[in-house]
Design brief:
single chain, alpha+beta, Homing Intron 3 (I-Ppo) Encoded Endonuclease, Chain A, 3-stranded antiparallel sheet, 10 strands, elongated
C-alpha cells in the first residue's frame, strides 16, 4: 500500500507537536482552516479521512513531524491512543507495542502479570519471541507483581509497563 504524498499532506494539515492535534490548513468540504481533523473511533484512536482512505492520526502526526512515513509500528508510550503528542510517540515492533499494554480489564488481582492460583498468587510473563514463563507462586499479589516487574524491566527495557 502506497503512502500518501507528504507534500500534499503538509499543504493540507498542520500538526501541533505540543498538543498532538492535527488541524486543517485549507478548506475541505465542511471543514475550514483551523478545524480539528479526524474523528475518534470506539477504541479511542483518531482517524482522518484523506485522499480516499482512513489514516490513523498518530501515523499522520509522525509523518508531519519527521517528514517521512514511519517504517515501523508507532507506540503510544502512555497507552492513551488518542494522545498524539510527539513526546508520547515512538517507533516500535509489534512485540514492543504489545509489551507496553496496560493490565487486562478482566484481571482480578489488580496487578499486571499476576493471577490467583489455589489460594496463592502466580506470576507469569511472556518471553519476547518465545513462550510464557512461569515466575513462581507467592503468598501475596504484591510479591508476585514485584517478580513480574523485575523480569519485565529485564526483558522489555523501556517498553516494560507495570500496570
Amino acid at each position: 500500500m502506497q503512502e500518501i504524498d507528504l507534500i500534499l499532506l503538509r499543504e493540507t494539515f498542520k500538526y501541533d507537536p505540543e498538543t498532538g492535534v492535527i488541524t486543517f490548513k485549507v478548506r475541505r468540504g465542511k471543514k475550514r482552516p483551523g478545524d480539528i481533523a479526524g474523528s475518534r473511533k470506539a477504541d479511542g484512536r483518531i482517524e482522518i479521512n484523506f485522499s480516499g482512505r482512513f489514516v490513523r492520526a498518530h501515523r499522520l502526526a509522525w509523518a508531519l513531524h519527521y517528514g517521512e512515513w514511519p517504517d515501523a509500528w508507532i507506540d503510544h508510550i502512555n497507552c492513551n491512543v488518542s494522545d498524539n503528542r510527539i513526546t508520547n510517540l515512538r517507533a516500535a515492533t509489534p512485540g514492543q507495542n504489545n509489551r507496553n499494554r496496560s493490565m487486562r480489564s478482566d484481571n482480578k488481582t489488580g496487578f499486571k502479570g499476576v493471577s490467583k492460583y489455589r489460594g496463592r498468587y502466580r506470576a507469569d510473563i511472556q518471553i519476547p519471541h518465545g513462550p510464557k514463563r512461569f515466575l513462581g507462586h507467592f503468598s501475596s499479589a504484591e510479591d508476585a507483581h514485584q517478580a513480574y516487574c523485575a523480569t519485565a524491566d529485564q526483558l522489555y527495557g523501556e517498553f516494560a509497563r507495570h500496570h
